[in-house]
Specification:
single chain; about 260 residues; alpha/beta; Uracil-DNA Glycosylase, subunit E; six-stranded mixed β-sheet; 8 helices; about 15% strand
Length: about 260
């Protein structure tokens, strides 16, 4: 149901000026008597005037056949790009620098037992104590080799890296040079018949060798004859290795026993 105001709004939107309901509309305003009189027929001209005019057919535009004159621009014989490429070819290729290796960490102690020098790894980083199990094992090995079982400690332990901060190179090569230089200085003071290298750091930074060289005799430049041995901690953890140490010791024992 529509109220009167909304009904008139709809009729105005449809351009209906006069209208007459067939029945009484609820909520409608009272009818006016003049509207009940017969109305003259609406001329068709009015509707024709209101109707939109038909759109004219589009006319296709005619293409213009106009030729533009071609203008040629003279260009130089040599281009810029080959010259730039030649400059790139002349430039040396960039060489990627390898990243510096981190400094190794180890602690070594040098001792003298008779005519032999012993470079041994300090697994804990601390000097030997008289009741340390590893030091007692070292004394047993020296006794079995017919060497003094109270070795003389030479200098302070070699701890690497030397400096916690700074720009000094402390990579593996620098560590190897330092360890070998330290041993050479001691050999100049008092030569030895055999250098014991006990532990992988001692073997690696004094003789440039790895674990497969255990129990073997090595010839190290500027250091002479060396004997590669597993670390004391490894011998205690794996006692079966002691048999290999004893077998290799029997073959080398004559080297330092002849000096006595």
């Amino acid at each position: 149901m529509l109220i009167e105001s909304r009904r008139r709004a709809y009729l105005s939107a449809m351009q209906v000026v006069h209208w007459l309901p067939r029945a009484e509309l609820p909520f409608a305003a009272p009818s006016r008597p003049e509207l009940l009189l017969p109305q003259a027929p609406v001329e068709e001209v009015e509707f024709e005037a209101l109707a939109p005019a038909p759109a004219a057919a589009p006319v296709a535009p005619q293409a213009r056949n106009i030729e533009r004159p071609k203008i040629e621009i003279p260009r130089p014989a040599s281009s810029v790009k080959p010259a730039a490429k030649a400059v790139e070819d002349e430039a040396p290729p960039a060489v990627a620098r390898p990243a510096p290796l981190p400094p190794p960490r180890f602690a070594l102690q040098l001792l003298r037992a008779g005519s032999c020098l012993v470079l041994v790894e300090l697994a804990t980083g601390q000097p030997f104590q008289s009741r340390d199990p590893s030091y007692l094992l070292l004394k047993d090995m020296l006794r079995a080799a017919s060497l003094p079982d109270a070795p003389q400690i030479i200098g302070e332990p070699i701890r690497w890296p030397l400096l916690v901060r700074g720009n000094m190179d402390q990579g593996p090569d620098a560590a190897r040079d330092f360890v070998q230089g330290f041993i050479q200085a001691r050999l100049e003071e008092s030569p030895c018949t055999c250098l014991w290298l006990i532990g992988l750091p001692a073997l690696r930074f004094a003789a440039q060798a790895e674990a497969p060289a255990y129990y073997q005799e090595l010839q190290v430049e500027a250091l002479g004859t060396a004997w590669a041995l597993p670390g004391l901690e490894l011998l205690m953890d794996e006692p079966q290795r002691k048999a290999d140490v004893w077998q290799a010791m029997r073959q080398l024992m004559a080297r330092w026993k002849s000096v006595e």
